[in-house]
Design goal:
The chain is 9% helix and 45% strand. By secondary structure, it is mostly beta strands.
Length: 163
């Protein structure tokens, strides 16, 4: 009788315990939705409860990580995704897994986390700044510039005239 009572108590405790089995659907995508270029990512470190859980790197002959990665059979806990964006910043995204469901994680290599307090143009005081840019492709190479001018509270753009 005593062992039966102990068995019932143990099964009651086991049935009350939360058994979470979640999935991650990881998407490497642009923060800027109007930019259709693909920005390669070479490494994502995943931590579970502050301990390394998995390191995602390209397969042997792949130049970069796939743009959609799926991980399954994940247990409850706090997961952190650490990667380096295009600007050299280390980005850390955290997800708390507490339900049996698929969590969508958006990894955005083109997102600039730290923003400057003032832009270059706000620092112009009755002066000008020249922006030089280039375009290169298989069958072209071009270079041009634009001058931004500040006079008082007004800003003007000057570009060369094509005739």
């Amino acid at each position: 009788m005593r062992s039966l009572l102990l068995l019932c108590l143990l099964s009651l405790i086991m049935s009350c315990q939360k058994n979470v089995m979640a999935n991650f659907d990881i998407h490497i995508e642009n923060y800027d939705k109007y930019d259709e270029r693909r920005h390669d990512l070479y490494k994502i470190e995943i931590y579970k409860d502050e301990k390394i859980f998995k390191i995602l790197e390209p397969e042997e002959y792949a130049p970069a990580l796939n743009f959609n990665i799926k991980l399954d059979s994940l247990k409850e806990g706090k997961y952190s995704f650490v990667y380096e964006n295009l600007f050299g910043e280390t980005i850390k995204k955290e997800i708390k897994v507490d339900e049996s469901k698929t969590y969508r994680i958006s990894i955005t290599p083109d997102y600039l986390f730290k923003k400057n307090k003032k832009s270059v143009f706000e620092n112009l005081k009755d002066s000008e700044a020249k922006l030089v840019f280039q375009s290169r492709g298989c069958f072209h190479q071009d270079k041009d510039s634009i001058v931004v001018i500040n006079k008082g509270k007004d800003y003007f753009l000057r570009q060369k005239m094509v005739v």
